[in-house]
Amino acid sequence: MIVYFSGTGNSRFAAEFLSKQLNDELLDTGRHMKAGEKDTLHSDRPWVFVAPIYAWRMANVLADYIRSAELTGSKDAYFVLTCGGEIGNAGQYAAQLCKEIGLNYKGVLEVVMPENYITMFNAPGEEESRAIVAKAKPVLEQGGELIRKGKDLPAHKVGLLDKLKSGPINEGFYKFYVKADAFLATDACTGCGVCVEACPLNNIRLSDGKPVWNKHCTHCMACICGCPTAAIEYGKRSKGKPRYQCPKDEIL
Length: 252
Known about the structure:
The chain is an alpha/beta fold and 252 residues long. It is built from eight helices and eleven strands.
């Protein structure tokens, strides 16, 4: 089973690509998180967990989901992590998670996709995004073939800087930066509620026709990048920046 979390579509792309290649079942955890479900999942085939990298480690929301779910059947677990640059020492934490819940860690696949974290960086334009996605396809094909054969994914070389990024820097990122306080809706907001539906953590509600953010945010960028009128800003950090959604016609 391929289990994924995605905010702007990069990890959804990777998951759907692998689902087609491996002819395997697909589960969107965002919908289950939104419904507040604690899942019991069964797969006779290896588990393939697909998620974005947040500060050089797999997104906490998927790691938490995996811990909370009851997983039966196969004990083998692969991790496919999408990133704007590189994954640091993310593999170590995925391996620790497997040890914690009794799975056999089979490695991590680094898949570089278009940058989407517009509260800190610039997202590429459509042409550049498509070029980056095109380069990701053979990486996914090669990783998918190893998964199909039951082989381990190649190990990554990890240096001291990688350990710092995925360790204390990641922890500081979540503690000091991952907050919803700076999100706001401009006068371009129509009150359509797309952001409310897009938020996997039910962190957004409409008040007097405008979105209001609560405290349970993971910075997945689903709201700001999915707004049909580009009415959501993250303080001044996002002003003038292009929004990003993985091109839907690139998925399969």
